[in-house]
Automatic annotation (TrEMBL):
This is MarR family protein. It holds the Pfam family MarR_2. It comes from Sphingobium wenxiniae (strain DSM 21828 / CGMCC 1.7748 / JZ-1). InterPro entries: HTH_MarR-typ (IPR000835), MarR/SlyA-like (IPR039422), WH-like_DNA-bd_sf (IPR036388), WH_DNA-bd_sf (IPR036390). Residues 1-135 form the HTH marR-type domain. GO terms for molecular function: DNA-binding transcription factor activity. GO terms for biological process: response to stress.
Length: 135
């Protein structure tokens, strides 16, 4: 065992899970370098909530689920709407209500993001060049 491997082993024993964090860090760095839209954690949580949980979704409901204020949700929705990942729709039964709806572009983004994360997390860094891991 060389000195570098021994040091890594000691660090992992002292800090369990550090290997997974390093892997996640590399995945995030690769994603940032990919040039794809850089969403905040709140925007991504909002996006996943809309796409994974059954609707209908409202600003008030999303604020409650994510435990943030309605203005925070509105700002995140503005960004996601400008990217075409979600859209606001008026309730046909009560025009005062606005629902947050999924879009094909948003579904494509999440599918590509999923494949990017899953592919990067599985890959050995020395087996695949960085360019091969972008999706």
């Amino acid at each position: 065992m060389d000195a570098s491997t021994a040091k890594e082993s000691v660090v992992q024993n002292q800090r369990p899970g550090i290997g997974q964090l390093g892997q996640w860090m590399q995945t995030l760095v690769d994603y940032v370098r990919s040039g794809k839209p850089d969403l905040t954690n709140r925007q991504m949580a909002l996006m996943m909530t809309v796409y994974i949980d059954s609707g209908p979704h409202t600003v008030r409901g999303l604020a409650e689920v994510l435990n943030v204020s309605k203005p925070v949700i509105t700002r995140a929705l503005n960004k996601l709407s400008s990217l075409g990942y979600v859209r606001r729709e008026r309730d046909a039964a009560d025009r005062r209500n606005i629902f947050i709806a999924r879009t094909p572009k948003g579904a494509e983004f999440l599918d590509a993001f999923h494949h990017f994360i899953a592919g990067t997390a599985r890959d050995e860094p020395d087996k695949h060049p960085r360019a091969d891991r972008s999706a």
